[in-house]
């Protein structure tokens, strides 16, 4: 089972918050968005549904005090900033901080997700997950993993965009785990390109923020309320150059991990991120980090 040393002690508790009035408005907007999304998604013409889903995801991010910043480092001439052209299958891989990652990726371009099996039972996100045709994965039952890989392969072969979080669990954003290779087999089996995405949350002070982290024993309701109160967070999405599948899933996972991390392990070493090749251990930095971030 993938495990993370991060816990609630990692979460920023001094982040800026909104007023009571703003909180009430955000809550009412979330309820309205979730009530109208099924109808809007159904009545929208097929060619407009991606735009509808993207706008709803961005609106929900706004209610959580999160702004979106997209950086395209692929050097392509593709019009617009998207993971792939319509009808082109692609496997999108990203580090995992919390449930807001789903909204962030959907705000770039709607995708289907490989996500924990109980996600469809969560409040608010559950309805969105069902509409996005989530591929459920039970990390505690490895016997079902080949079936999950096969389902991913079938759907990217059919031209779908599938996003996965190969760390297998959430980390606080100032520490992270390795990208495990199992799900990459779907890209190899179908000779499908992989789009690595570097996602990090930045606070109003310009430092990495752990406010969106969904870690430890925190409940979904607690996390949602914190995000509705918060403000000043920017989700920075960096689209790294596409990786070709090759023939070795471990090599593919390693290449994508380097792309996903970028220079974070150099620029933010004081936050205790993992050294390349380490598993579930965090390097002791020059400045102390919360004990919950140290394995």
TrEMBL record:
| UniProt keyword Hydrolase, yes or no | no
Pathway the protein contributes to: Lipid metabolism
Q: Which GO terms fall under biological process for this protein?
A: phosphatidic acid biosynthetic process
Any transmembrane segments, and where? none
- Recite the UniProt keywords alphabetically: Acyltransferase, Lipid biosynthesis, Lipid metabolism, Transferase
Question: Coiled-coil ranges per the record?
Answer: none
- SUPFAM superfamilies recorded: Glycerol-3-phosphate (1)-acyltransferase
Domain named Phospholipid/glycerol acyltransferase: which ranges? 90-202
InterPro entries assigned: Plipid/glycerol_acylTrfase
Question: What are the recorded GO MF terms, alphabetically?
Answer: 1-acylglycerol-3-phosphate O-acyltransferase activity
Pfam families named among the record's database cross-references:
Acyltransferase (PF01553)
- Full protein name: 1-acyl-sn-glycerol-3-phosphate acyltransferase
Q: Which organism is it from?
A: Antrihabitans cavernicola
